[in-house]
Amino acid sequence: MASVRTGAFHRSYEEYCEAIFELNEDELDVIQARIAERLSVSRPSVSEMIRRLEAEGLVEIGTYITLTPKGRELAESVVRRHRLAERFLTDVLDLSWSDAHVEAGKWEHVISPVVEAAMVRMLGEPTTCPHGNPIPGSDYHAENTRQLRSVEVGRQFTVTRIPEELEFAPGMLDYLEQVEVLPGRTGTVRSSEPQGDMYIRINGRDVQLDAFASDRLLVTVAD
Questions:
Q1: How far from 197 is each of 121, 162, 173, 190, CA to CA, in Å?
Q2: Contact (CB, 8 A) for 78 and 13
């Protein structure tokens, strides 16, 4: 993957394009309110920045906000560096998921192409971040996933992806890591409550997940 040169755009431009990319990846309509929530900034600030991004040819404004090819190239480059950094910070430095997520948010702006290439070699050409989300430009092949919420009681499933929306939910990464709801782990749905809570058994322990998590966790289920 030919990445956009590190530092070619202001850091805030990178963060906005990254947010738009990730909201779209999670199949959410990209509107200014969602960007403001994701980046913890005011709506007037988002409105002003979106106008700047449009002037730079990075986004198009219609019913929803979309990335132009130029904007998508920038976003993929930033997301790639972020997810490689997360993989390095967890696999090599043994940081927790939440700590790695925060630190990767800093590293994504400064990793040079030569360092990026070295990380890829050292990590064995990974295709996903620790949470199962695809690394742009890698040899990732999407699986036929479904939301955990849709899995019937008694059915077995394998955790595949923890989408970015869950990564940004306060305390969620810490909790999922603590209860070992990890990509590649196999579990069974024990019960599903009317209010949305689910109870699963995974890695020999019973785990409770709220509706927000079970509606977003992506899993595979054998036919």
A1: 41, 17, 18, 11
A2: no
The alpha carbon dihedral of 189, 191, 196, 202 has a sign of negative
Question: What is this structure's pTM?
Answer: 0.91
Record the tokens describing residue 139, joined without a space. Answer: 């040899």
Between vectors from CA 204 to CA 101 and to CA 194, what angle results, nearest 5°?
80
Q: Kindly report, residue by residue over 194-207, the tens digit of the pLDDT.
A: 777 999 999 899 99
- Position 223 scores a pLDDT of 73
Strand partners, 187: 157, 202
CA distance 36 to 27: 17
* DSSP three-state, residue 180: coil
pLDDT digits (tens, 9 = 90+) for 115-124: 999 999 999 9
What is the CA angle 109-112-114, rounded to 5?
A: 155
What are 30's two structure tokens?
Answer: 């990209």
- DSSP secondary structure letters along 202-216: ETTEEEEE-HHHHTT
- Residue 157 near residue 187 (C-beta atoms within 8 A): yes
pLDDT of residue 5: 55
How many angstroms separate the CA atoms of 188 and 88, rounded? Answer: 30
Give all domains of the chain, ordered by start, each with its CATH number. Answer: 11-72 (1.10.10.10), 146-220 (2.30.30.90)
